[in-house]
Description:
Chain A has 319 residues and is mainly alpha-helical. Chain A has helices at residues 2-11, 28-45, 50-59, 64-88, 94-120, 124-157, 168-171, 189-205, 210-221, 225-250, 256-279, 282-305; strands at residues 16-19, 24-27, 176-179, 184-187, 312-316. Chain A is globular and about 55 Å long.
Amino acid sequence: xxxxxxxxxxxxxxxxxxxxxxxxxxxxxxxxxxxxxxxxxxxxxxxxxxxxxxxxxxxxxxxxxxxxxxxxxxxxxxxxxxxxxxxxxxxxxxxxxxxxxxxxxxxxxxxxxxxxxxxxxxxxxxxxxxxxxxxxxxxxxxxxxxxxxxxxxxxxxxxxxxxxxxxxxxxxxxxxxxxxxxxxxxxxxxxxxxxxxxxxxxxxxxxxxxxxxxxxxxxxxxxxxxxxxxxxxxxxxxxxxxxxxxxxxxxxxxxxxxxxxxxxxxxxxxxxxxxxxxxxxxxxxxxxxxxxxxxxxxxxxxxxxxxxxxxxxxxxxxx
Amino acid sequence: xxxxxxxxxxxxxxxxxxxxxxxxxxxxxxxxxxxxxxxxxxxxxxxxxxxxxxxxxxxxxxxxxxxxxxxxxxxxxxxxxxxxxxxxxxxxxxxxxxxxxxxxxxxxxxxxxxxxxxxxxxxxxxxxxxxxxxxxxxxxxxxxxxxxxxxxxxxxxxxxxxxxxxxxxxxxxxxxxxxxxxxxxxxxxxxxxxxxxxxxxxxxxxxxxxxxxxxxxxxxxxxxxxxxxxxxxxxxxxxxxxxxxxxxxxxxxxxxxxxx
Lengths: 319, 260
C-alpha cells in the first residue's frame, strides 16, 4: 500500500492537495482514485463501502479520528441520491425506519462518548482498528462460508435457496407495533436494539452499518427484501448526519475537502461498478466481496499483531 | 498594531545590543527570500533562502568565523506514547510522557561540524541544537526511562523531515557573505517561525540576529480551518450540505449524460 502511494504521489507532484483539517498534503488523484475504487466496489456489490474506505484512509496515513468523521460525512452524501430513488419507488418503510433511527441516534451518542473517552486515553486508534478487525472478520467470514454453501447447493439442486426466517423468539417480546409497509406486527425492542448497535458502529467505525443492518432486517426482523435497502438507507442518512455533527462539534475532525474528493471519485466509480455488477453472478460477487473484506481485516490485524517499526507515537499534549 | 510592537521590540533589542556590537566589531545583516509562507490548497512544502553579510568596521580577526542558522516552528506540548505488547498478543499504547515544549519544526544549519562551530555552553545557553531545543517535563514516576521519549520525538520528526540537522550546509564566502536554503515540508503547522543567525568565533557567539517567518493558512484553507474550530456546528451543517450537493450533483450529471 505504501509503495502504491509513493508511485501515485510520484505521478504528478503538482496535484498535491493540502487537507485543512487533517493538516497534511495528499495527492488529489490518489484520493479520487480511492473514492473511485470503493465506488466501483459499492456499485458492484450494492454496499455503502464505508467499511472499506475508512481502513484504506488509515493505510494512506490519514489519522483514524479524521478518517472516521470524514467518512460519516461522505456516507450521508453518497446515500442521499440512493434514498431519493427509493422514496420515488415507495420502498421505504418510514415507521420502521423511524424506530431504527431512534435506536441509531442513541447508539451514535453512546459511540461518541466511548470514542472521545478512549481518545483522551490515547487509545482511540486501537478502538477503531479492533472494531474493524472483529467486524470485518466476522462479516467477511460468514459471507465467505455462506456464499460457498450457496454455490455448492445450487450446483447440487439447481434450485433457488429460500431465506431462512428465524422469527420465533422475536414474536414473544412485548411492545408490539404494526408496520404496514413491511406487513409486520412485531415488538419495537429488536429494531431499537439493531438501531443502537448500528449507531455505535457508525460513530466508532465511520460506516453506515448497512452490512450489519440489512442481514438483521431480513433474518431477525423478517422484513420483506424489497423495503430493506430503502429503509436502511433512510436510517443511515440520519444516523451518519448526526454522527458527522457530533464529530464536528466535539473533535473538529470532519475534513470537507477530503470528503468531497472521495465523493466525486465514488460517484463516478459507482456508475462503472453497477454495470460490472450486472454482468456477474450474485454468488461470485459475494465471494469476491468476502475475500476483499477478509484481506482488509487481515492487514489491520497484522498491523496490531506484528511489532511496529516505530514503537513511539506523538499526540497533541495537554489533558 | 502587532507589527508595530514587534518593530519597537527590535529597535530596543538593537539599542541594547549596540555596546556589544561595537566591542565585537562584527554584525549580521540578514535577508530572507520570503518572510511568509502561505499554506494554500495546493501547498506542497516550501524552500526558504536565508542569506546575509557580516558587517565589520575592524580588520578580520585571526580565528575562523562560523555561521549558525536555526529556524524553529511554534512550540506545542505533545504527548509521547510507547506501545507495549498487551496480553502477549497485540501492540497497544501504554506508557505516556508529556513533552512540555517541542517545536513543530526545527532546522539548524551550520558552516561546519556542530562541535567545532559552537561550544557546549554556548549551545546550551542559546538552545541551538535540536536536543537543547526540546524541553521534557511531566514524566510520571513509573516511567524511568523518560529520555527515550524525547529521543523518540526527535527521531519521528527527523524521519518526517520536520527536524533537520544541516551541518556544513551554510556557505560562507570570504568571511563575509553567507547563505543557506531550508526546505520546509508539506506537513507544516502554522505559526511564527523564529529564524536566528549566530556568528561564532572559537565556539563563542560574537553576534546574533533574529527574525520571524510567518507560516499561515490562507484563502479556503484558512476559512475552513477557522470555521471548524470557531463555529463547529455551522461547519458541520455546511459540510453535510456541500457533501450532499456534490454527491447529488455528480450523480444527476451522470444520469443526464446517460440519457443523451
